[in-house]
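User: Modeling request: complex.
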Amino acid sequence: MSDTVISDVMREVRMPDRTASGSTSAAEFAERYGLDRSGARPSILSYLGQLWTRRHFIRAFATAKTLSLYTTARLGQVWQVLTPLLNVAVYYLIFGVLFNTRRGTPNFIAFLVIGVFVFTYTQRAVLVGSKAISDNLGLIRALHFPRASLPLALTLVELQQLGISMGVLAVIVLATGESVTLNWLLVVPALALQTLFNVGFSLAVARFGARVTDVSQLLPFLFRTWLYLSGVFYEIKKFTTNAPDWVAFLMKVNPAAVYIEVVRDALLATHTAVPHAWLLATAWALLACVVGFVYFWQAEEKYGRG
Amino acid sequence: MAVAEPTQATPERIPTVVMDSLHIVYRVYGAGTGKGNAPTALHRILTRRTAPTIREIHAVRGVSLTAYRGEAIGIIGKNGSGKSTLLQAIAGLLPPEQGQVYTDGQPSLLGVNAVLMNQLTGERNVVLGCLAMGMSPDEVQAKYNEIVDFAGIGDFISLPMRTYSSGMAARLRFAIAAAKTHEVLLIDEALATGDVEFRRKSEQRIKELREAAGTVFLVSHGVDIIRHTCNRAIWLDAGLIKMDGDVNEVVDAYEAQYSTKAPAQAGVY
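Assistant: Request completed. Predicted assembly structure:
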């Protein structure tokens, strides 16, 4: 390229060290002074270390995001509770009453509310994760920090939201005639596993969404399909009695159904989870976490570009 | 930073940024149509066809330079000559098409549209910005007053940043970024919207950062601020270095060219 003639001249003017020591390349010259390639991706272990040092940032970012979430709505934080409750009302009316999926399910309201709240947690975590990079380009371009902080912080926001939902959930479950048992403690590990799953899923979607911005337009459709398939407002076993085995199998190992099952198992005396639900919940959490993290880390140097 | 001691007799100049015939090509997505609706987007993803409206821009066409500690380098040139692209490349935000950039530590880029979080108050942005730069909560506490004083935006610090004027937002951003000692600080027109008092303060701060053995790159159309704060200047033209050297020489040559040609060029940019 003829353009480079000028820059070759400049290099001789500006790099006396190199012409003095012969034909040292820029890479060797840089290495001699301990310079790193700009924007290079750190190793996965040092990346984890960097994330750990930014734990305060992650927490502060999550708190800040929660505070700013509903600043433009007049009812403010009330919407955090109102939105899932309105969803429950719609599903109860359409599916429970009109399609009569409530028949034969003891304590259908509590059954439905748990399903909606647990599913909403994963849905929201992944939806905000898909926009974690594109919505924070200014921050990414201005400051340098491990980018995984953003999907992590946003999942933390959803976890805080879930805390509020769980309070409402407890009231509803008690009001529908359940009683507090030691089993309720199982909600904590169940939601912890679901959180791990959400973190991994949201990291993976964050990378995908950073490159293909159309993802955030498509996700709502995918999630609605997933919602209908996950036994949120019906019992899977009732609908798969005449279906082929593989359909029943897929519906039962589906992670959304698994996490809903384990929470129902913990809170509802009348409900018993499918076999191996806890095993599946753990496996999905670990799988999503590892795959999501590695997948996200592989593109670390590319976020914020373009 | 552990650097090998020099063997030459000449005073050692330690490089902080090295780049070797760097080419940057960037792609602009969706120049023209919007995102499209869900079915077309799905179709595009499934067929693995890239969006029809990608345009490639060859913004930097072979730039080689070495920057040393204690230098403040002003980058001048017409709009679209590749100044901001060059800074983004140094910051590691744009992948080089050819060539490579080596830097000491992680450069920080301070741009005019580097938004923190608009919905949040200035106070929270200060804390978040400092934590994101890797400070511990204790360090943030220690630096907080200094940053707020430096920004000098008064009571606005407790209001959301969306209520700030562009000048006030720029002051706060610069104050946050300058709170940390950077090996390489890149400033892209971020000081342009500040008032006279703030420019004087920021010029002073840039000098301090230089003296703390850092390197500062400053992109600005205000040649006076470059003369005041920089000791070296690079004139970029159409993605190439046209001139590189002492700040006064380069700025004089730049001004000489455009003071005579200015009327003829006016319609082009």
